[in-house]
Design a protein that fits this description.
heterodimer, A: 258 residues, alpha/beta, Rossmann fold, six-stranded mixed sheet, 9 helices, B: 262 residues, 2 domains, four-stranded antiparallel sheet, 10 helices, 26% strand
Chain lengths: 258, 262
């Protein structure tokens, strides 16, 4: 039997990380439910990307723990965490600039499928993110938005259980973004767990089941989108004056593809 | 629609400050622009939108002389830009804010701004420009001694804009100014662009947040695969069903996220 709907796939326990005098993550705890799309939001500099780095082993916490499927990830290297079924994309893209688009896709290790199958899968994913005509181009020649799309496609080359997406909407055309979101919902239907860091409120409010809000390195709020939009602490920290989050809230008939 | 400013009046003789005719450009063997034509009149705000890889950033880079020009004409304020170096183009009064909040991280806010005026030798003019930028962005004035790398994303974007203003350009090109910014900073950035335009600055911007950009624009161009696809008044493009479906991410028939999303 697969994990139940209420099962926790990932837990952050009192994570702390300081860079010099800056306490980027300052006692952050949360649990990521299995099979859901969770959103992580917060002002620029609130510690979201550092949190992702702590979860994936790119940064070692000063204290605190990451528990994945009841097992501590302490001391594991990024590739070891990747092999456990956690994959991610980056806000500042990390593709191989001197490899072609197709080679970038095939650079993923541990595919456990024949080369022919991997190539077919790569071609499908490249076509899905509208990069088919650029498959033989060097990664370094892609625009920022196209590099984001390549990373997204590359993250799906394996069959991960947990997918962490750092600002998937940034620099991506809004129409294509809707297709990416549909795909994310299909992954969810397959039982994957997804965590998204994002500033685009359409993505967060219309597509996430649960939202965590960070400010100054700590979680200041957590709940379903409808609740978060009314939380005064969130309004203060994140949305500022004038533009209320309701402006971009779930709208009747909005393209919700769950 | 609350835009209280409309300089491009139909029927008025318009003076194109910047004009591109059939411009082709690319990187090495990869051609990105296959004949892009557009113009920006003095005092206008013009948006360039389109899907990923349409050639939006490439258009800015070829205007600024950063990449290979393969064909067509680029004229700014009566000067032919083709074959000129970026510093010479900057000296003509065309400012450029690249994508991704590119600031000098290990330098202070003030030093970053001074770098923006590196063509200017007159100390008094540099100081006047500094005061001008601090009056526009008071936050930068408060933080003038802080290292740029330690500032938040929104502040870095303000700094990048302030740096481009140090040469007191006639026109400024902004490549995705809202990229990666949290909602309140997106508001700040767009507010500043509107203020600058009211002060008479001509603005051309590229945005994936196309609805938001068109809201503050007099006109817009839609590029696709390195060619012109649509053009028109900002509001007309916002309401164009095909533009909505193909580029704004919601269907015309659906009450989707709408132009205020994001």
């Amino acid at each position: 039997m697969g994990p139940g709907a209420d099962e926790i796939v990932l837990e952050a326990r009192d994570l702390r990380k300081a860079f010099g005098g800056v306490r980027a993550v300052d006692g952050c705890s949360f649990v990521v439910p299995h099979g859901k799309i969770s959103g992580l939001i917060g002002p620029n500099g609130s510690g979201k990307t550092t949190t992702f780095n702590l979860l994936t082993g790119l940064t070692t916490p000063d204290s605190g723990q990451v528990i994945y499927k009841k097992e501590s990830l302490a001391g594991l290297k990024p590739y070891e965490i990747f092999r456990k079924g956690i994959t991610r994309t980056f806000q500042i893209t990390r593709i191989f600039r001197e490899l072609t688009v197709l080679e970038n896709m095939l650079s993923v290790t541990g595919l456990r499928v024949p080369d022919r199958v991997a190539r077919e899968r790569a071609a499908e994913l490249i076509a899905f993110v509208n990069l088919g005509h650029l498959r033989a181009e060097y990664g370094g020649r892609l625009s920022y938005g196209q590099q984001k799309l390549l990373e997204f496609a590359r993250a799906l080359m394996t069959d991960p259980d947990l997918i962490l997406l750092d600002e998937p909407a940034a620099g991506v055309n809004r129409t294509l973004l809707q297709q990416l979101l549909e795909h994310i919902h299909r992954l969810q239907e397959q039982g994957k767990t997804i965590v998204i860091v994002e500033h685009d409120m359409n993505v967060i409010m219309n597509h996430c089941d649960r939202i965590f809000v960070m400010d100054y390195g700590v979680k200041i709020a957590e709940g379903p989108p409808a609740e978060i939009q009314r939380d005064p602490r969130v309004l203060e920290a994140y949305f500022g004056r004038r533009r209320r989050p309701d402006d971009a809230g779930p709208t009747p008939g909005a393209p919700r593809m769950a | 629609m609350t835009r209280g400013r409309r300089r491009a009046r139909p029927g008025w003789p318009s003076v194109a400050l910047l004009e591109l005719r059939d411009v082709e450009a690319g990187y090495g063997s990869l051609q990105i622009l296959h004949g892009v034509s557009l113009h920006v009149n003095a005092g206008e705000v013009v948006s360039v939108i389109g899907p990923n890889g349409a050639g939006k950033s490439t258009t800015f880079k070829v205007i600024m002389g950063f990449i290979n020009h393969l064909g067509g004409q680029i004229v700014f304020d009566g000067h032919n830009l083709v074959g000129r170096q970026p510093d010479s183009i900057l000296g003509l009064g065309l400012g450029y804010v690249p994508q991704g909040r590119v600031v000098f991280g290990p330098m202070t806010v003030r030093e970053n701004l001074e770098m923006g005026a590196y063509l200017e030798r007159d100390k008094a003019k540099i100081n006047a420009s500094l005061e001008y930028v601090f009056s526009l962005f008071p936050r930068l004035g408060e933080r003038r001694r802080q290292l740029a790398g330690s500032m938040s994303g929104g502040e870095q974007q303000m700094l990048a804009m302030g740096r481009a203003l140090m040469m007191r350009p006639k026109m400024m090109m902004l490549d995705e100014p809202s990229l990666g910014l949290s909602p309140r900073f997106v508001d700040d950035v767009f507010d500043r662009i509107v203020e600058l335009a009211k002060d008479g600055l001509t603005v051309m911007l590229v945005e994936q947040n196309a609805a938001r950009a068109l809201e503050i624009s007099d006109r817009g161009y839609v590029l696709e695969l390195g060619r012109n696809r649509f053009e028109g008044a900002g509001q007309a493009l916002l309401e164009n069903p095909e533009v909505k479906r193909l580029y704004l991410g919601y269907d015309a028939a659906m009450p989707g996220p709408g132009p205020t999303a994001g």
